[in-house]
Amino acid sequence: MLFISTPSDSPADAATRRRPKRMRAWFSAYDVDEPLAASFRARQMQAMLRLTPAAMVVNIANALVVGVVLWGHVAGGFMLAWVAAVVLLAGLGLRGWAREQARPPRRSASRRAIRHAIGHAALLGAVWAALPLSVYGALDVQQQFFVGVVLTGMICAGGFALASLPAAATGWVLVLGAGTSVAVWRMDSAIAHALGLLLFLYSLIVVYSAWTTAKTFGARLVAEARADRQHEVIGLLLRDFEDHASDVLWELDAAGRLQHVSPRLAAELGAPAPWLQNLPALRLLRRALPTQAGMGAEARAAWQALLVRLESGTPFREHVIALQRGEQPLWWSLSARPLRDAAGHVVGWRGVAADVTERQLAHQRLSWMAHNDALTGLANRRHYRERLQAALAVGWAGTPGRAVAAVLFDMDGFKQVNDTLGHAAGDALLRVFGERLRAVVREGDTLARLGGDEFALLLPGVGMEQVQSLLERVFAALAPPADLGGKTVALRACAGVALAPRDGTDVDTLLGHADMALYAAKRTGGHRWCFFESGMHESRRRHAQLAQDLRNALERSELRLAYQPQVCAVSGRISGVEALLRWTHPEHGAVSPAEFIPIAEAVGLMPRLGRWVLEQACAQARQWPAALKVSVNVSARQLADAQFLDCVQAAVDGLEERRIELEVTESALVDDADAAVQTLNRLRELGVQLALDDFGTGYSALGYLRRFRFDTLKIDRSFVNDLEADGEARVIVETILAMTRALGLVAIAEGVETAGQARMLRERGCEGLQGFLFSRPLAAQDVLPFVQAWEGGRAARAVMEAV
Predict the structure, then answer these.
(1) Where does residue 123 rank: exposed (0-12), middle (13-18), buried (19+ CB within 10 A)?
(2) Is 41 exposed, middle or buried, given 0-12, 13-18 or 19+ CB atoms closer than 10 A?
(3) I need a labelling partner for 96 at 20 to 30 A (CA). Which of 68, 635, 662, 675 fits?
(4) C-alpha–C-alpha distance, residues 32 and 41, integer Å
(5) Beta strand spans in 546-681 (E)
(6) Nearest to 331 by CA among 303, 373, 367, 293
(7) Dihedral sign from CA coordinates of 221, 223, 229, 231
(8) pLDDT for 313-367, tens place per residue?
């Protein structure tokens, strides 16, 4: 193909043709078709008119002030004529504003209206410019300075007041700025030329700023127009596909009566479509507002907000209202926009209603999980600390005889019940204990289960006598034994009390002193309570001794790892093991991890112990089959340790990274979430799998599931224990499993002790199971024999068949 070049095709000519287009593009706030441009001009006029009264009053006031200051120094006739001209033009501006206010808001504006505004601004600027051009040379230095300041302010203020109409702003600024600059240039001063040039440059900057602001305003108008057009298209699509959509379309007339009632809307409202036609929609919905305790106030607030939105005539999206169908709660999400006539008056509404009941119920369940203990229904640790912090913030120091009491309870013999009767009996005992306490506490008190067999009570605004009286009632309520499925178990507990502000003014100090009082009560024989006293530091002695002994536990070979198998719920095969740290103290015997792990955290030993655990687990994994995954717990201190990533990389060297899974508890993410997530991202880059452990045990990890993608979510045993007996527990577990499926996570349930629990978990899609039903934690040398026996043994088949 032959291309023939002509002079018009040269780059220079093309660039020449593009220059006018660029100039037009720069001096244009938007580039749209004429109908849309007319509506944009109306918006520009409205923006300018909002500032017109203030701008015109300022013009008149400044003119009068200048006239008074210069009277006697300038010809009186000129001064009067100039002030009259400013007042006249400002008055015309005010009259135009008043006319606009008297008529309905403009839907469009002509180019002539814009030119009229530009002419008015330029003419008013010319009148102001006439002042320095006529009298500046006759004024002394102070008067020149005064006039220059006034005119500079007028240039700037007028430019920005007219920024929505940049051409008018340009006319005002250039006319007034040029006139003032010329007057300054003609001054009898060595710096007159420099001042005049600077003033003109300053005027150009104001013009540039006005056009920049106008372009931003124009871009917003274009974006709004596009959004309106998209909304109209969406409305048409919803109307066309109403019979095939899951949502319900609705329409109201100006009086709020239903129009074009569809069969689906009639079905939702439970009445025939002809009967619903022209009925007041708000009256129908008001009758369906819920009456259940706890929902009425919230429903009324949402209802009032809906009425306000309808009254305002502005579009709204996803406004949720609570309704009631029979005895069942119901939530609708309403989205709508007003229908307007040619004059812009609201003549009805058209919108969509979506049934979001399942979403609201799931949100309520998750919110409840974040603030309550799943086993007892009481407040959890996080919620209790929040309430205690709020009570301390109120302060009772100024009220004689009144304090904030923090009471900690610890059940006596709970471990023995767990060991002899099983965890199900232990959980039942915890529920009975919580119910006994709940029956005694006052309205306004906060009762919580902190974890395990630890409970807490918050009593705001009490005296010591009131605390003693309430504790007497508590222990009287605990006196009758608990019936646990035919087994009678005594309910015994100890309590420790700390009072604020006497025993502390912050949460940690107060709870620490209440814990010391609790330890003192347990040391004196149990089933009693103690108030904190300054001499209660015996618990610190054991803490210090264990901390000192723990420093040398590795060298003395007192620490070891035990491994608890994890079973695939589908195939029944052993999919992995969890490494668990154990300590056998030469004097105290087996020390619970619940006791020595917090000590290790507090004294800074966790990085060292965690490194040893990781190295031992990885070394052991090298000796086991490649299909066997090893899970290792990671503490908050380890995540914060600068050497942790290097430690992990060295430990997994030579080992397929996917065989190692690091388990992070929810609490490890709380202290410094950003740093923790950053470390987890680095670990994922190494190829190590990551699990979120103990999900739902007092902290809300939902935000972290959004910020970071884990491979596995481990459901805490407290949610598993009640599966067979508690319908609410089943709903919570189902919600967690649904969430793991939606997020693409593998779910492993901890604490599985019965075949019924395992069966229910498997039926609900839980991939992994771990607990005493399958095996207790094993020594390293017993793992392979157990796996081999499980894979081919009758006992394993019997367990899985029962499941």
Answers:
(1) middle
(2) buried
(3) 68
(4) 11
(5) 559-568, 574-585, 589-591, 629-634, 660-665
(6) 303
(7) negative
(8) 888 888 888 877 777 788 888 888 888 887 888 888 888 888 887 887 777 777 7
